[in-house]
Write a structure and sequence with these properties.
alpha/beta; 18 strands; 24% helix; 6-stranded antiparallel β-sheet; 5-stranded parallel β-sheet; 362 residues
Length: 362
């Protein structure tokens, strides 16, 4: 009699275990279970980018210049990336910061980023330098690429300091292919300029690289570097705002300019709510309608109800808070979105409503 009873207990226990697992999967698909699962959300996402949150292990930490730390982040099944891409790092405090990928796209088991310590910054770089050590895990989102390397008869790069990070993988690709390219690389001192030795080796053939250390030769001559470029040349610039402004002002006719910002443009509208009026925002998926005061950002109003909504720069240049707009006319105040993206999405940290109501896919 003992054997049939044992068999019954095993069968009942197995059925209970399977039921619990099925229930967990059902709840995961719809947190509001037993209501029907909602359609797949797209807010905060672009169909062209990977957005899953992953936990990666810090397996390497190297100081690659004065005040600049490089991190190697390893994990399984990492999405591929192309030169110019960046990651969102979710730091231990919850801050989200963007760092350009500066490693090898063929290294499918790891991402490499580098960050400069900014003593008077908003805290992200200090947290990276002081808390992220080998053996710790960090959450990442991405990669995303808003600074891709385009096809062109020639490429010219104007870079300042840590701005070399998104450009370095581009230089490797161009050098390996035998393409026509030149680089103007400026920094406070040679010791503070990350990856300087590798960059000079890449450009050794044909004197392609011009290095200007401020403590030796002052500021780089951006206008001179861009003078007499052939039509069709692609110019890439990443660095401090004055460098970006100089490249914009000196761009020859017939050339294209590609910018990667680490801060909002001087004199831009990013972060400003001047001249704003109050309106309301409906969060369609959450079933809530919120007032947005005249001096309040949509982001602040939304996070008061949905504190998990991601954000970073709060100035309209990083893209972390991008959300899909289902209804309403948008007052775009960012410096990032393309014309196509502006048709149905907004950066809720700075952009607002032209009218009395917006409906977000949140």
């Amino acid at each position: 009699m003992a054997l049939p009873r044992l068999r019954t207990v095993v069968l009942v226990s197995g059925a209970a275990l399977l039921t619990r697992r099925a229930l967990k999967r059902r709840i995961a698909r719809s947190p509001l279970w037993p209501l029907p699962a909602l359609p797949e959300p797209v807010s905060g996402h672009s169909k062209r980018r990977a957005t899953a949150v992953r936990r990666l292990l810090v397996t390497g930490r190297t100081e690659v210049a004065e005040g600049v730390v490089q991190l190697r982040l390893e994990g399984p099944g990492l999405p591929p990336w192309s030169p110019g891409a960046h990651l969102d790092l979710v730091l231990p405090s919850g801050l989200v910061r963007q760092y350009s990928l500066c490693g090898d796209p063929e290294d499918s088991g790891a991402y490499t980023v580098a960050t400069r310590l900014v003593a008077d910054g908003r805290g992200g770089s200090r947290e990276v330098h002081e808390q992220l050590r080998e053996g710790l895990e960090v959450e990442v989102r991405g990669p995303r690429n808003r600074f891709p390397l385009t096809e062109a008869p020639a490429h010219v790069f104007v870079v300042g300091g840590i701005g070399i990070t998104p450009v370095l993988p581009m230089l490797r690709v161009l050098a390996a292919s035998g393409a026509e390219w030149r680089l103007l690389y400026g920094g406070r001192s040679r010791a503070s300029m990350p990856f300087l030795e590798e960059v000079e080796k890449l450009g050794a053939d044909g004197d392609r690289v011009t290095v200007v250390a401020q403590d030796e030769a002052g500021h780089p001559d951006v206008a001179g570097a861009l003078a007499d470029l052939s039509p069709g040349t692609a110019v890439y610039c990443c660095g401090p705002e004055p460098l970006m402004a100089a490249a914009t002002a000196a761009l020859p006719e017939g050339c294209t300019l590609h910018l990667e910002r680490f801060s909002a443009a001087t004199g831009g509208t990013g972060g400003s709510v001047a001249g704003s009026e109050a309106f309301e925002v409906e969060l369609r998926r959450s079933g809530r309608t919120l007032p947005v005061a005249a001096g309040q950002s949509v982001l602040a109003a939304v996070r008061a109800e949905l504190p998990h909504v991601a954000y970073s720069c709060e100035q309209g240049f990083c893209g972390t808070c991008q959300q899909r707009v289902l209804e309403g006319e948008i007052d775009h105040r960012d410096e990032l979105l393309t014309d196509d993206e502006r048709g149905d999405s907004m950066l809720i940290c700075v952009s607002r409503c032209r009218g009395g109501r917006l409906v977000l896919d949140l």
